[in-house]
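Page header: ASSEMBLY MODEL / two components / 492 residues total.
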Amino acid sequence: MVSLRGLRIVLLSLLLLTAGWVLPAVSMAAPDQKTVDFLDDDFYENEPDIVDVGDPLESFNRAMFEFNDIAFTWVFNPVATGYSYVIPADIRGSVDNFFSNLQEPLRFINTLLQGRFSDSGAVLTRFVINTIGGVGGLGDPAGRGLGYPRIDATLGETLEVWGVHDGFYLVVPFFGPTTVRDFSGNLVEVYAMSAYYNWTDGWEETAAIYLFEKQNKLSLHLGEYEEMKQLSFDPYVAVRNGYFQHRKQKRDHSVRSYDN
Amino acid sequence: MIFFNRNLQRLFLGALFLTFFLPSGAFCSTPDPTEQLKPFLEKLVAELKTDEFKQDTSCHQCKRIVDLASEHFDFYEMSRRVMGKQWRTLSTEQKDKFVSLFTKLLQYAYIGKVEDYVDKKIEFKGQRVKGKRAEVKTLLVDTDKTIPVSYIMLLKDDKWMAYDIVVENVSLVRNYMEQIRSILRSKKFPGLITQLEKKIKTLEEQKNKKHANAGQQASSVPSAESSETHKL
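Prediction written out in full:
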């Protein structure tokens, strides 16, 4: 048990180290901090490298994309579809709220590290209200009635704020589109989350919980991926572009988005 | 950075306040984008709800939907924009060819999207006008999820025409733009046309199959159940 944990930490630090070392060399340009304005023609005409982040591993990524696509089509999507028939939408929404609530302390730390102090307050408020008033986070009274919508703050973004470059685009099996930096951040966060799962016997159970969480999330977004794939003539590029566009907007905190 | 954004936000709120609470006719006569978009979307969705459309096996009605959609969707502008800088390098024939094919693709894309709207609710979440441009924010509300959809519009002769749709923060035009760029880089213009034609053909086949199925179900199963299957 201990050695496994130790191994994981070593693996993580190695990854982060390599990331820090490779990143400045490979990254194409500094992340463009300009906010997106759809009403501005620049957004369409300038084509300021649409991909801020390079994709030097494109052939590997494409292979992983194919792999994920097959796993999605033949395993995850059918399972999530079946699950969505059996479990009503409001319960699936509650499960999603529950997992999201568990992550609020992480978000709190990240907002602090990013200097978004008013967001830190909001995250803390959400955590308290939803844990108590939302029965352990199953409900989202803070978001629904009290005007504290979900706030996004990941370690990947913290690293971005601190000047760590994206590295390059990466498609990870069973995980999807990400970048070296964001994926490293994600691993650390998964590790931090495992503090909750102390009662589990081994990594298998933690992995099962992770899979269940993802599966539940997917059941709330059925059909979106297929539709996207159906309408694009290069799904790989479409997903890559969608990932970066979505991420950029999500990290633009001047605009409160109401999705999630 | 953060403080800067806060100020911007305040400025934006102030502007919003002004547009709402000052008599709009007093200093400009720009038509209201939401007021144009709302009845238009309602009309489109109503059209898709008719039995005529649901039981339409060979997609005869699709043409009608497209004509209706063209009222506030500028398919030409969209095609021009997805080409980005490349647009100026194309000959007139190439432009025409591309616009006609890409318009067709967009129409399939859009009909597919609006068909989804049928059993959802559209909420209007405000708008932003900047000169001749406007962004109308909507929320597509379903039982288990809410999807933000923004319409980016251009004022043409008192008519607001959409030239981009932003779904969950992802701009459709921008997304196609990158796909086109990558295809142009490796396969040049003729390759792009072939790929477009191939895509449209598969979409056509899928559409026909889907409508044939829907038609069969509608005629053989009692109506309550058929609406259920249609939803799935």
